[in-house]
């Protein structure tokens, strides 16, 4: 429904050029909810504003519902933009107009006749559960209700696409949940495609079918949420299943195992312990309902170095599990020695800003350059080397 190709937006101010969106490709399928995550300044809002041409990209293509927006002008462009609704963090309501008046506003701009307008406003207010507040003014309703007005207004032109820029970040958790539920409901009932920006992992977990992570204007990870979570080294997985920094004791193998659906019902830890007569130590983990499936991530410790556990690791992989082996301490020291520590420090805050709680601090997902990965040859799969810094989200963001 939305195809973004090689999109680039450069801001020039006071002799400085900032590449806010840098060569971004994104494909949002019809009827899905697509979440874009990233730390402040990553270029999320700019990307979104390029989708409805509030910002004119410097290069690339934006195709919405089969129409190449940059090739349109005049009335064609106006009509295409009517097919794209947008909601904002701070609602942007007109304080001098009632709830009904705010929803009527875009219809007036579109030149919809009065009688039809009134009918449509009533429909829209019904859709977002605000019929009883039609005559109230924005100052007289709650934040959640204001966002419902924002949503009703965005849907006035019967758009196929809704863009949402941090629409819930000014709301408390309960209200956030109800707005997310409303978006999910509208997405299903109207077949509405939603492209949303958020910094809350919870939003992705609750309603997104697909997601992308942006950093420094680029998309560093994108795809269906389920696929991303099962991909070794996924930043999304680290954000959704925060595990503390791994402390790999010498003579042990620390493994992060991601499992979903069927494999979530199989007792793989006890099977592993029984089959190989070893003690498996559980270091941490979480299970989440993601869409219709259960996905979990467990960190386990096996006795012996990764070389010794080759068969055990192969067994886990053959059971359909995603397996990431943590490297040993020397690998981390090496990575510091070859000058990557600076890149790490910078990107640590990024990973953390995506996490809800105490965040995972890992070498691989957070490094910008070649990752300090070790153990790949040993384990035959993707390996992750954990650094030692364990910061909280608050520390990283301060
Ligand atoms: N109008 C503008 N003029 C100049 N620079 C801009 C403009 N808008 C954004 N930028 C710069 O572009 C970069 C991306 O900004 P953008 O607002 O897209 O980030 P964001 O990911 O939405 O951040 P946040 O999470 O804080 O909303 C930043 O470096 C920002 O300073
Ligand atoms: Mg923004």
From TrEMBL:
Keywords, alphabetical: Amino-acid transport, ATP-binding, Cell membrane, Membrane, Nucleotide-binding, Translocase, Transport
* PROSITE patterns given in the database record: ABC_TRANSPORTER_1, ABC_TRANSPORTER_2
Renumbered residue ranges of the record's region Disordered: 339-376
What InterPro entries has UniProt attached to this entry? AAA+_ATPase, ABC_transporter-like_ATP-bd, ABC_transporter-like_CS, ACT-like_dom_sf, MetN_ABC, MetN_ABC_transporter-like, NIL_domain, P-loop_NTPase
Question: What Gene3D superfamilies has UniProt attached to this entry?
Answer: 3.30.70.260, P-loop containing nucleotide triphosphate hydrolases
- The ABC transporter domain is annotated at 2-241
Matching Pfam families: ABC_tran, NIL
Q: Which GO terms describe its molecular function?
A: ATP binding
CDD domains according to UniProt: ABC_MetN_methionine_transporter
Output this protein's name: ATP-binding cassette domain-containing protein
Organism the protein comes from: Actinomadura fulvescens
Query: What is the phylogenetic placement of the source species in the record?
Result: Bacteria, Bacillati, Actinomycetota, Actinomycetes, Streptosporangiales
